[in-house]
Amino acid sequence: MPSAPHNLDELAYWVALHGAPKIGPATFHRLIRKFGSPQDVMRASAGDLLVIPGADAALLDSITFAGIRIDYTRKLVERLLERNIRIITFRDAAYPQALNKLKWPPGLIYVQGDYTDADQQSVGIVGSTHASARAFRTAYRSAGALAGRGYTIVSGNARGVDSAAHLGAIDAGGRTVFVLPDGILSFRPNAEITPGKIQRHAVVISECPPEAAWEREAAIARNRITAALSTRLFIVEAEAENGTLCTFRNAKELGIPAMAAAFGPDTPKGNLAAIREGAAEVKSIAELLHAVATGKVEHPQTQQSFGWE
């Protein structure tokens, strides 16, 4: 395999090609496989580029524009490095190996903080952006309990359940991974999570262009990364069809066990759908902790109520 980029100029080409419109993960990997490096992609003839599956005039224009903007991209890379944001390509040793489980992993990621071996013992916590008070409490307390047992909490920095999960892990003194649906320079955590807490307790990861605003397509793509970085997935509160179930189905495809919270007769429809599709039903934080640790769910006969409080 060719070596990873090691200087600012090479990184600028990686960032420029990776962030170019019309180039998603599949096209990016196909281009790199054929030509070897982003510089070589940008030097390639139109005829050679058009042999890539799905290539068209719009892709050629996008690659041309990425080359034209290379000076701007160099300055962008300098800004990122000055802020201690690392640019990690799929060829780097620091690239999280869990992402290679994906059919089309990110060609590169932007990382603030250190993603360590310890973060591979992880639980993804996902749920509605319009979370009920019950869901917010459940996510916060569950994240805190899991973090207290050494698990890193992975979530997507959305409103609602995601924010509660990140906050619960940090308040418990644990670790959390923010998987962004936008550019890392646009990162805005929950107002209660200060920069100091981020530095001590968190790692921030994004595959989006650094200055990108939130887009639905990017948010959907983010879900596969959340799933891949989790060794277990916990669904707190899901609507009938939303990003939470998208993340669950990504996890299912990757063989990652999932649990869904049950609250009784008013259990959310999305949670019930996940349970029907194979997620384990858990009725309390104690059951959740046991399921995460052992892979088994046990419902104590003495349990008379749902233990999320």
Fold topology:
Elements: H1 8-18, H2 25-35, H3 38-43, H4 46-49, H5 57-68, H6 70-82, E1 85-89, E2 108-112, E3 122-127, H7 133-148, E4 152-155, H8 161-171, E5 176-179, H9 195-201, E6 202-206, H10 216-228, E7 232-237, H11 243-253, E8 258-261, H12 269-276, E9 280-282, H13 285-294
Parallel strand pairs: 3-4, 3-7, 4-5, 5-6, 7-8, 8-9
Antiparallel strand pairs: 1-2, 2-6
What would your notes on this structure say?
- The structure is a single chain.
- The protein contains 13 helices and nine strands.
- Helix 1 (8-18) packs across helix 6, helix 7 (133-148) packs parallel to helix 8 and helix 10 packs across helix 11.
- The longest helix has 16 residues, at 133-148.
- The chain is 43% helix and 14% strand.
- The chain has 309 residues and is of the alpha/beta class.
- The protein starts with 7 loop residues before the first helix and ends in a 15-residue tail after the last helix.
- The chain has a nine-stranded mixed sheet, with helices on both faces.
- The chain has two domains: 8-91, DNA polymerase, domain 1; 117-294, Rossmann fold.
